[in-house]
């Protein structure tokens, strides 16, 4: 349940697979409308697109860091396997020093909680300030369609469970060797976390991309899960361009492993590292 460790900067990084989400093809949208959407879906066999649900375990001189926390027990027995993977690796919840959250959706942050209490008894919880501000704003909750309201309850529960162990962060350095990159759109304050630099850098991108191949080829393709689909498309294009130029490797909440972006013939391609 999780790959071998790979090194980026001072970090050894291991992907922990929490489960597999079957995303309904009916949840896809395209910024260009129904024509380009139909062109894509015509090539999809079946009514769902399976995607991994991932979080990441980092080891360094600074201790043990998780990036995202999976679903925990919140989404039933098909999810929450990241906890078992950590146990198998001999890691106790109390061993985790900090958890960096990319955005406040359940499949990334509910693993922080068990029975409304903190699952990680000692960890500092690092959350992008902009995402926390959005998902704790009752006026925003009322303004967002019901299907996109999940983050508001997640934020309230995380706040109750962790209180002053939450540290809100903005763009730039968040902890030794880790830099926050704003990746808005999927949620207003979604963040990527960059470890290391240049060709030895890895950016963990949350849900800036859900589908590696399809969204690299066409960044205007997205899911209804994006709170602001136009900004999400802009972010995908900008991120892929920068990753291709800088040589960054990318990993995400739903990507199949660690990938590298390349620009070729006017489009992007993601290939396994
Ligand atoms: Zn997600």
From TrEMBL:
Keywords: Hydrolase, Metal-binding, Zinc. It comes from the Bacteria. The keyword Hydrolase applies. InterPro entries: MBL_superfamily_lactonases, Metallo-B-lactamas, RibonucZ/Hydroxyglut_hydro. Pfam families: Lactamase_B. The keyword Lipid metabolism does not apply. Residues 52-254 form the Metallo-beta-lactamase domain. Belongs to the metallo-beta-lactamase superfamily. This is MBL fold metallo-hydrolase. It comes from Xaviernesmea rhizosphaerae.
């Amino acid at each position: 349940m999780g790959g071998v460790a790979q090194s980026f900067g001072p970090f050894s990084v291991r992907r922990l697979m929490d489960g597999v989400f079957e995303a309904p093809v009916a949840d896809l949208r395209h910024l260009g409308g129904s024509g380009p959407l139909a062109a894509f879906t015509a090539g999809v066999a079946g009514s769902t697109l399976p995607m991994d649900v991932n979080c990441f375990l980092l080891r360094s001189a600074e201790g043990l860091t998780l990036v995202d926390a999976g679903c925990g027990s919140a989404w039933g027995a098909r999810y929450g396997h990241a906890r078992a993977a950590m146990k198998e690796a001999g890691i106790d919840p109390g061993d985790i020093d900090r958890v960096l959250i990319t955005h406040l959706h359940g499949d990334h942050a509910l693993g922080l909680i068990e029975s409304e209490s903190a699952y990680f008894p000692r960890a500092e919880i690092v959350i992008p300030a902009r995402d926390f501000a959005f998902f704790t704003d009752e006026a925003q909750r009322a303004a967002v369609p019901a299907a996109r309201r999940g983050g508001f309850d997640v934020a309230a529960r995380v706040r109750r469970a962790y209180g002053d162990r939450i540290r809100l962060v903005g763009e730039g350095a968040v902890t030794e060797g880790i830099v926050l990159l704003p990746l808005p759109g999927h949620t207003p304050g979604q963040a990527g976390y960059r470890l290391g630099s240049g060709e030895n850098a890895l950016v963990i991108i949350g849900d800036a991309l859900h589908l590696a191949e399809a969204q690299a080829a066409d960044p205007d393709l997205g899911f209804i899960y994006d709170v602001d689909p136009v900004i999400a498309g802009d972010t995908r294009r900008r991120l892929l361009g920068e990753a291709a130029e800088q040589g960054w490797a990318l990993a995400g909440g739903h990507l199949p492993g660690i990938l590298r972006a390349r620009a070729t013939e006017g489009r992007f391609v993601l290939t396994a590292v």
